[in-house]
Amino acid sequence: MTDTAENTEQKVDPDVVGEVNSWLEQNWDPDLTVGEWWELLGLAGYSSPGLPTNAYGHDLSRGDANAVLQAVSEFGALGAPGGLGLMLAAPTIAAHGTQEQIDTYVRDIVTGQKAWCQLFSEPGAGSDLAGLQAKAVQDGEEWIVNGQKVWTSGGQVADLGMLIARTNSDVPKHQGISYFALDMHQEGVDIRPLREMTGRAMFNEVFMSDARTTTDAMIGDLNNGWAVANTTLANERASLGSGGGHQSGGSATPGTVVGHLEQRVGDFVADPAAKRRRGSGGGGGVFGGASKMLMELAKGNGKISDPTIRQDLMKLHTLAEIGRMNNLRVKAAKQAGIDIGGMPNISKLSMSEMMRLQRDLGLRIVGAAGTLHAYDGGQERKDIDEATGNPFLGMITEMALFAQAPPIYGGTDQVQRNIIGERVLGLPKEPNNDKTMPFSELPKNA
After folding, report:
1. What is the distance between the alpha carbons of residues 321 and 408, in angstroms, rounded to a whole number?
2. How do residues 114-125 score in pLDDT, each as one tens digit?
3. What pTM was estimated for this model as a whole?
4. Are strands 177-183 and 160-166 parallel, antiparallel or unpaired?
5. CA–CA distance from 398 to each of 107, 116, 288, 357, 371 (Å)?
6. Are 243 and 285 a contacting pair, CB within 8 Å?
7. Average pLDDT of the residues of the chain
């Protein structure tokens, strides 16, 4: 690491961390309910401290915001409510919503009262998201929504959805889209889980049949939803990208569906009576942790002496460090009032590469045992652990099976490369009439 990188990394304001630790000393109580604790955390601006001050944040840089979230974790308190509300909806509404919408929606996000999902992709509009055909038709102060969405993460536990729908078919496709908050509990919204090859069902398809939302729930201007959606997508790619650092989500689930809000908050942390040992930190976020876990696993079964394993472990560590340093570059650039074009897309591509590398490394380390997976969890997982004597095997096989998803969700790797080529490198786009022909006249995806 260069001296410049070290100096940049150390520019976390110590007063910020000191303030949050002082606040935690005064307010953390494991006997509160989860809802009570998240209300304290959110209204103090510590659920998402990077949000603007008018949106229940402290307008901190990404580095300082991550330091705050890390301080909450190291203190031993439950972290902020995780999920797509905090990751995507809150920053989008903070950027494009009215103050009334911020007070209505963002407040409930940072305090964990409502969980959100993302209603973007459709069976015929994934990579070509602007080709979506779900329609919203105005009916007085309401909008009637009909259509289908797919790959909706967390839809089964969501209270609200970030919906983009077509509100004008007589203009070019990017110009006729609006962005709404949609009540997921109403009649007319049918959520159907999609079981993955991991055995889980994180994703859903959502059918909307005369579902309703309101003009007050429109985020941004009518037919300007594509600009709003791009803010959501930019936050998604930045959050999913490699080296994303500390993630705020705790073990409790926000919203009204799962029922965690009324439970004792101390039951969701490892040791609510004792603070965790402060210290090491380290780079690379979740990917840094994965490389360390794989390294220890290789040491444990003798594979660490394999030169190809060692080489790929070093490659994984290097990619995680590059991701972390890219985050530092972005932070320094923003402080200088400039931007690094394409960085969220580069980070997303790097994340996909790291997931594939983790998959291949993990399976090579565990060998033939990697063909065993507990698709229904529970007793099956216990039986496999007992038979193999390896309690980490389930993590390896699930990581391997899930590795096919990141190159697809959040915008495929091919889409990321197209964006970098066209918007950063200035390469020509494929010829089409998207920007001039009304959507109703365009050939539709099969």
Report:
1. 23
2. 999 999 999 988
3. 0.81
4. antiparallel
5. 35, 25, 18, 14, 11
6. yes
7. 88
